[in-house]
Every structure is written in structure tokens, then in C-alpha cells.
Amino acid sequence: MDTTPMKTVIIHGQAHEGSTCRIARMIAEKTGGETVEFFLPRDFGQFCTGCTACFTKGEDKCPHRAALAPILAAMDAADVIILASPVYVFHATGAMKAFLDHLGWQWMAHRPKGIMFGKQGVCVATAAGAGVKSTLKDLAHSLFYWGVGRIEKLGMAVSATDWDGVSDKKKAAIEKKTAAIAARLKFCRGRVTPTLKTKAMFGIMRMVQKKGWNPIDVDYWKKNGWLGKERPWKKRQ
Ligand SMILES: Cc1cc2nc3c(=O)[nH]c(=O)nc-3n(C[C@H](O)[C@H](O)[C@H](O)COP(=O)(O)O)c2cc1C
To answer: Which of 79, 149, 207, 214 is the most exposed place for a label (fewest CB within 10 A)?
Structure first.
């Protein structure tokens, strides 16, 4: 059993401390351990240039690699990755999307990190009224395709534009939901097995890699043994 403090990284899709930020922090606080936070676009505000170097030459060839590095390192070290975004016109904020665009190379279709399959992820979204579902989907797509083994979602229509405007009744519901999520995160630590859906997607991507359309991806899958019998969720013998 892992007795080291749980590590959580929160990537905030906005740079202010409103309802979304509060809810994400409540989950991290209830989970306990260490938390590292990044606020977008303050801590990373670049737009993908579309050069595709990350896909064809390697992620270290991204023109924004230096700015991205601290966030990637924190995500690699974390047990739990929280992606939190207010709903902006039914979707995640532009800042969050710009960040996620930079990680297309670590989707399962390319070079997913083996360590992601043992991690847990949480998507947090708040709206004044509508758009939570599509926003959670925006966030969950990336966690799923990175290979994150277990994903929680917490969406709230808070009927407010800031935390002070959120009713006591809603705050009580948020307390309950964040406590339940934190309890599950703690319980599942060290025993995350990816869902059947993740394993099936990995299998499809494996077939694509067997056909081999992007040499550096194929090489990566071969080196990891994933075109043979190894799988990222299995411990190496
Ligand atoms: C640019 C912008 C677009 C928004 N679009 C929506 C929307 O599509 N649906 C909605 O219900 N609320 C929308 N809102 C309201 C916020 O999603 C809502 O107040 C949210 O709880 C704010 O979170 P925060 O306190 O973390 O900033 C929008 C707010 C802004 C600033």
C-alpha cells in the first residue's frame, strides 16, 4: 500500500478564484496530501501554432515546450489530475482548450504515457444555467484519450456568476458531492484498473499502430512493448 501523501494537480481553465476554482479545491482539500495548481492563461497562455512537430518529430519540438514543461512534470508526478473550467458558451474556456490542444501527441492515437493508465482524473465544470454536460465532455475527452484510468465528473449549475452568489443549498450539495468524490479518489489510489472502454480504445489504437502511419508513434509503441504482450496497466515482469 502506498502511504506517501497523495499528489493532486489542478489545472484551472481560468485565472480567477470563482465557483469552479472553489469546487476543484474542495475536492483536493478533502482528498488530502499535496496540491499543485496552475491557472490558465496566467501559467500557460500560448495557442498551438499548428506546426504538428509534436506529432511528427516529438513533443520536445513544440515551440512552447519550455512553458509547458512545469505543468507536464506536475501531471506526471500526480496521482490525481483535476481539470476545472467554468462553462463559457457551452464549452470549456478558450484558455483550457488552448492548453489541451498542446497535448494531442499524448492521446492514445499517438504516444500515450504508460503512467496515465494508473492515474485518476476529475473534470469540474460550473455554469450559471446550462452547458455543464458539453463542458465536462470537453475535459473528459482529453483525460480519456490520455489513458487516465479512472475519471470522475462534477458539473454544477450554480445559478450565479461568482461564489458569493451561490445559495447555501447549492453549497451544501457541493460539500456532499466533493466529499463523495474525494472518498472514492482515496479508496481507488493504487488500485486503478482502466475501464473496458479504455482498454478497448487502446486495442483499436494498437491495431492502427500495427499498420503504422506515423513512424515515431510506431517506434514508441514498439519500445514500450505494446505491439507485443505488454500493456501500460500491467506491471512488467
Ligand atoms: C464568457 C462567458 C460565457 C459564459 N457562458 C455560459 C453558458 O454558456 N452557460 C451558462 O450557464 N453560463 C455561462 N457563463 C456563466 C459561468 O459559466 C458561470 O457563472 C460559472 O459558474 C462561472 O464560474 P467561475 O465563478 O469559476 O468563474 C458564462 C460566463 C462567461 C464569462
So the answer is: 207
d(CA 82, CA 230): 28
Q: Does the beta carbon of 112 sit less than 6 angstroms from any atom of ligand 1? A: no
Atom 20 (ligand 1): residue with closest C-alpha? 127
CB neighbourhood size of 213 (10 A): 9
Q: Is 180 in the pocket of ligand 1 (CB under 6 A)?
A: no
Please work out whether the CB of residue 20 comes within 6 Å of at least one atom of ligand 1: yes
Q: In CATH, which superfamily holds the domain spanning 7-192?
A: Flavodoxin domain (3.40.50.360)
Q: Are 120 and 148 in contact (CB under 8 A)?
A: yes
219 lines ligand 1 (CB under 6 A): no
Q: What is the length of the chain?
A: 237
Q: What DSSP string describes 162-179? A: SGGGS-HHHHHHHHHHHH
Would you kindly state where each structural domain of the chain is located, as residue ranges? 7-192
Report pLDDT digits (tens) over 45-96: 999 999 999 999 999 999 999 999 999 999 999 999 999 999 999 999 999 9
* Residue with CA nearest ligand 1 atom 27: 18
